[in-house]
Structures are given as C-alpha cells and as structure tokens.
Amino acid sequence: RCGGCAYQHIRYEHQLEIKRRQVEDAFGKIAKIAAPEIAPVIGSPQPYAYRGKATLHAVKTAGEIHLGLMDISGGHVTDIERCAIMHETINDQIRRWREGELMSSPEQDVTFWSGHHQDSAETVIRRVKNREFAVPGDGFFQTNLCLIDRMVDEVCRLAQPGGIETLVDACCGCGLFSVFLAPYAGRVIGVEIYEKSVRYARINAANLGLNNVEFVLSDVTVFLKEMARKKETVDLIVLDPPRAGLDSEALAAISEINPSDIIYISCNPATQARDVGGLRQAGYELRYLQPLDMFPQTQHIETVGLLGRR
Length: 310
Known about the structure:
- The protein is of the alpha/beta class.
- It is built from eight helices and 13 strands.
- The protein is globular.
C-alpha cells in the first residue's frame, strides 16, 4: 500500500532479471545503443533489512499522528509500523517514536539512521571496507548496508590504476569514492554543492591521512565549466549525480575538458542513458555497464558505467 516495494511479490532472482531488462531497455531506447552489453546484475546479499536510512512523513489529521510513506496514489501517508527492507534498528526507532520516546514535531519528515537511537543526530558514522565515514545527519549516503563495499570495489576496478594524474569526483557527498580512489591518482578533487557534506568530506580525508585529496564547495556544472574555461587537464571524471542526472551544460563542459575516461554512477538508468547518449555524440563510447541491486523489492536499480574516448 505504501507504494515503495513494487516488486515484493516477485521471486528475488526474477527481480534481478527484470531490472537487467530495465537497464537494457533504457540504454537501447534512450541512449540509442543497439543491444547494449550489460554485466549480470549484482544482487544484494540481503534482499530484506538492508536499508540504513529511512525518511518518513509525519502528519497530523483529526487529532491523530500518522508516520509513514506516501501511498501508491501519492496523496496520502500510509502508516508504517515495521518496514521489511529497513534495518531492524530503524524499525525499533519507529516503534519508539510512536511510543513517544523519540517524538519530534508532529508535522515534519523524520529521518532514522540504522544504529542510532534518537530521531535526530548531527553526525552519523558509517563503516565501509573497515573505514569510518562521518556523514551529516541530514546528508546523503548509500543506503544498502550489505552491498556498498561491493559497489566501491566495482568503481575502483573501473578506475584502472596507473596514469591518472588528476581525478575529479563530481557530486562527491562526504567523500566516499574520493577516499577510496585516492591511491589511484596523483590528485583527487571532490566537488559537492552541500556545504555540510564538504565539511565532513574534509574531516574524513584528514582522519585517513590523505594529503592528495581536496574538496570544493560548488555546483557541479559551474565547477566543470570553470575547469573547461581554464583548459585544465583531467584524466578521469567520476559522476554520481542525483536521480535527475546532469544538465546539458555540464555534459558540454565534460566534453570540452576531454578526460580519457568517465565513470558514471546512477540510481536512474533513464537519465543515465540520456546523459550517456549525449556523451556518445561528443565522442565517447560506453565500454562497460554494471547494474547493482542497491534497492531490492523496489523498481529501482543502481548502475556503474565506464565510458572512454573513441
């Protein structure tokens, strides 16, 4: 009823096949790539209880407080007492919120992070491949607790160490990929528009003793256009934009910067395929596409693509 887990009635192995076809259709119809080569979908080790963050709507109607997610129509909040895809520590917090222990303002969104026992936290600690990352409580971090290590491995594998002098990590958040890609490049520049995430990214890099990583507070399009104007040399650009993807000015700037390779990470194959289509017109080709099921039971799928100059 909440409209989230649209595939929950489907056997998990078949969900993966459906999602592979979704990616294939997007790149065939939108990017105009005939029979795109797509690696088998990497499934989540846990198809349930994998989410490490939940943002629920709290609304008050007729004296009652409802806490949950939008229904299929998008017009009403469906009360959630327990969500099967959430980590159990989040379900425990939902229960405690309902019992009044964690009550916040009755008419606002409420964010719960796994492992935390209060309804708001300034700093959240996430652990990836035995490294700790500080994340702002109102910021973004990959939500699948079980598959994030593998996702980092895939991105690092595509970076192909050796010969990368300058690497730009666009939409870098709190520095997840910047940190793990630091050994692959002489210089890593992370770009992020949210000030608090930039601050935490700098803390994360400093805590890990990385001296070849810097973070810039900027809109990614503005930053890329400025790099193109200055004719700066970049060997690899890593893109991890929001679901809406990149705008045409950003794509034009990337083409002008002319990196040897681009790694494009996306949670929306349709906008990724659109952007890849634009980059193909600028002289790039899609060399590899790896879907990862970061969102089991839902219709969403994450993809990591590698593009290179023809």
